[in-house]
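Progress report, Aim 2. The chain analyzed during this reporting quarter is listed below.
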Amino acid sequence: MDAVVYKNIVASIKEYQGLSQNCMKLLLKTYPNQSYDTLYSILALEIRNRMKINHPRSQMNQQKFWEIYQKSIENCDKLGTIVRMAEKFDTSPCLLAKVILNQYFEKEHCCEDVPLSNINIYLRDTTLIPDMHLAAEVFLCTLYDNIYSPLTESMRSSLGQQYEIKLYKEVMNLGLGFRDEEHLRKHGYDKTPDCKLDVPIIIDGFVVNWIESKALFGDEDIHRDYMKNQYLSYWNRFGSGMILYWFGYLKTILEPNDKRFIIKDHLPKNIIQISPPNFELDDM
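Predicted structure tokens for the chain:
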């Protein structure tokens, strides 16, 4: 993706005030040439960066938010108070729901046998919340939050596995032998790529020993973090390899003279397989 297009998308996200779910709808209308997965990946990263700033403020104002919620109950406002509060205060519905839940258990002293520090269990199963109205409010938060809800987190994990399977199928269709991450870990490797080729291949003149699958958009921050925590370890252990950002990547992360990694958004078909040499007894 060109830097100009990327900057425009990021600017649209930063300018938008409201629920990330509605921001996603705006992005799809504004940038019809970009896939849903690409736009969502960029949106998710920007929202998480925003929440790193906004959510600590929410935690500092727990009493204030609790009082607003209580007043809404007293006024018999329609369901969706926490979602509307999240939209007004530019925060995540699920993160705000955790703040409200924390205040609820602290002040009401319900469920004393349940560890109050583990609020996440109530987002995953809202039927555990003793207050039926609050349970309904929190459940709505999980529906309206497309970044931090337990459902979204499960879908994101499933998506990563789906694209790993896609990688394995495409590698097998090319007739390449490989070892997957699970196999490598069983043999003592702590940090392993998704796919370690038995025999290296050549793609665009670049030798590829391993392939890493990422079901996301690769921007500079994402690439820098993975470079530090994963890619360099793979390079040290297995040599040069390929990184697949399935939902695209920012062109500025490319380093033309980099001999360690090649970056793609798909697995190329025009590969050159390196055949091991055949030794004859007379050659020895």
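Residues 66 and 100 are 6 Å apart (CA to CA). The chain is about 55% helix and 10% strand. These observations will guide the mutagenesis work planned for the next reporting period.
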